[in-house]
Each structure stands twice: as structure tokens, then as C-alpha cells.
Amino acid sequence: MAKRDYYEVLGVEKSASKDDIKKAYRKLAIQYHPDKNPGNKQAEEKFKEATEAYEILGDDQKKAAYDQYGFAGVEGMAGQGDFSSVFRGFEDIFGDGGFSSIFESFFGGSGGFRRSSSGGVRQGANLRYDIEIPFKDAVFGTKVEIQYSHNESCETCKGSGSADGASKKLCPTCRGSGQVRHSQGFFSVATPCHSCNGEGYIVEKPCNDCGGSGTQKKRQKIMVTIPAGVENGKRVVIPRQGDTGPNGGPPGDLYVFIRIKRHEYFERQGLDLYCAVPISISQAALGADIRVTSLDNKTIKVKVPVGIQNGKMLRIRDEGVPSGSQRGSLYIKLMVQIPEKLSRRGKELLEELAKTEGQNDSPKPIPLSQLSDV
């Protein structure tokens, strides 16, 4: 596949200034970055394409060669790395903030690596908990008690990680910054310091109970409110119930992911519920009043129209899935049951019906437009 013109890729004119080129690339990098589009190969290719274009047009010497000779003039100059593995270290593009700047552009907040001006205070990790709930509870909402393990502040050292208030010294590897930087071609990548685990300091005499981490693993029970109408695979966020951060840092959040068990009789589409109920030949032909039990165990009186066909649907409003001030419908599919065995009298009656009403011995296909279930 032929390459697109670098100016076309960035959406700028050939006369664009260096700042305009940088702004154009920044916009595309935010839009197509792999961290923002996980698993999206098309976005990853666009990100690579934009990065290659900027690598050429953002450099005066490479840009001049490209302007004069086209792709032939810059062959081999653009990086070919796998950008999906690169963190958010766009130092020369996104300003001094590098890591945090790009993350804030993506998600409107700071990343997991957060340190206070006093040094070493980081938010704890977010945790995930998976639960499976009954279909009915997902439709109408419920409360579920869960039990899980998470890190809490060490009671002995009060989260400091130091034994008896022992002193801490500056990390010699990162010199207190809590992070180290690596150059990967076009990018400057910041990662947490492995020597101090991003703290910026090293505890000289670690607490015996927590080993210097400032946290201890404990189990706790909490009640989780599952909202009415929750869908399969959705999550409920419980703020500040994740791991407590090192050095007394604030706790992360708990993400409760929900799986929904299948129901024996009901299924869901959006806010609507569906079920099927059997009716007899006589009920289908003559019409009838039947009683159907809803998902929330209410008895609903349903009128079966005269001459209803097998598989047709009846709609009961406001008996579906609740969502705020509205509620979906319940669709009841009527299944006409043909007796497998007939009594002598039943057979006589059906034979009499066949003689009276006649039978179609040469049936024609039914138009598809007449097969709608609703």
C-alpha cells in the first residue's frame, strides 16, 4: 500500500510553521494513541503513520530533504518501532509534563504514578472484583455483599514504612524524582524507578510488620449496590476501596465487574423482556383470557386475540426493564401446542372441524412481510 504524503497525514499545508506541525501531530497522537484505543489495529496504524510524518516534518533537515526529493530523500530516516509498547513519554511534544500531560489529555486526570510535592506519596492500585448475579437481580437491582483482600495502612508504622520513625534517604538511582527516563528513538519514556518503586526515597530501617511498604494485606466485607437495569459486562465503581497507597497515599478504587446468569424463561434486549408461553389450538382459534407470571412474580391478565397465529407476539407495556423514570415492555410469544395424542372424542371433533372449514391441500408460500412477530 502506497504511503500518503506526510503533509496530508498531519492535515497541514506545506507552508505550515513548526508549531503548527507540532500541534497537528499532538492532536492526532491523542486521538489514535494505542493506550486510548486498545486492540484497535486501525488506530494503531494511524498513530504510527502520524508519528512517522512528524518525525520527518518536525526536523528541519529531514523536512528539507522530503520537500526536495519526496520519500526517496528521507528513506530510512523515519523510525519503524512498535509504538503500542511505548508509554506516555511525549516529552518534546507535550511539554515538561510528558507522562502526566498526555494522560490528562486522554482521560481528564492524572495517571497511576502520582507523587505529592512532599515526595513519595502515591495513590494505591485500583482493584477488580468479578461477581455473577441472577438475571432478576440485574433487571431490578440488588445489594450484594462481597469479601476481598486489599492493602491497608500498616498499623505499626502508620503507613510510613519506617521502624520507630527511622529516617529515609534519597534514592540514589532517581535522585528523589521517583522515576527514570529512557530514550526510545523519537520518544522520551518515563517509568517508575525500580530501586525505590517510585517513592523517591529508600527506608533505612524498614518496619518489621510491613517490610517497609507501609501497607498490610487485609480482608474486608462491603455491600455493593447493583443498579436496576445493569447490563452484562458492566462495572460498578466503589471509590477508595482499592489498595491504600504506599507512604500513607490515598487508596485506589474497586471495580466490580458484573456477569449475569441466564434465566430459564426470560431474556432481555435493551429495556425489553421476552418470554414464550404455550396456548392450545382452541385458545388460538377462539381467543382466550390467560394469566402470565411476570419476572417480578406478578400475575398479568393477557387477552389472546381470536385467530392468533403460532409465534406471534403480544406486547405488555411497562413490564420490562426499569431505567430511571421509564420502563421497557414485556413481549409474550404465543406458541400453539399441537397435541401429540388425541382422545377419540378429540379426534372426532377435529375431523368434523376439517370437514366444516375445509383444508388447504395446495398451500402457497406466505409473504415474508406477514411473518413479523410483533
List the helices and strands and how they pair.
Elements: H1 6-10, H2 18-32, H3 41-57, H4 60-69, H5 91-94, H6 99-107, E1 127-133, H7 135-140, E2 142-153, E3 168-170, E4 179-184, E5 187-192, E6 201-203, E7 215-226, E8 235-238, E9 254-260, E10 267-269, E11 272-279, H8 281-286, E12 288-293, E13 299-304, E14 313-316, E15 322-323, E16 326-327, E17 330-336, H9 344-357
Parallel strand pairs: 1-9, 11-17
Antiparallel strand pairs: 2-7, 3-6, 4-5, 8-9, 10-11, 12-13, 14-17, 15-16
Written overview of the protein:
Among the domains are: 6-85, Helix Hairpins (Orthogonal Bundle), CATH 1.10.287.110; 124-161 and 213-262, HSP40/DNAj peptide-binding domain (Sandwich); 263-340, Urease metallochaperone UreE, N-terminal domain (HSP40/DNAj peptide-binding domain), CATH 2.60.260. It contains nine helices and 17 strands. It has helices spanning 6-10, 18-32, 41-57, 60-69, 91-94, 99-107, 135-140, 281-286, 344-357, and strands at residues 127-133, 142-153, 168-170, 179-184, 187-192, 201-203, 215-226, 235-238, 254-260, 267-269, 272-279, 288-293, 299-304, 313-316, 322-323, 326-327, 330-336. The strands form seven sheets. The chain has a four-stranded mixed sheet with strand order 10-11-17-14. Strands 1-9-8 form a three-stranded mixed sheet. Strands 2-7 form a two-stranded antiparallel sheet. Helix 2 packs antiparallel against helix 3. The longest helix is centred in the N-terminal third of the chain and has 17 residues, at 41-57. The two termini are 48 Å apart. Residues 80-92 and 94-120 have low confidence and may be disordered.
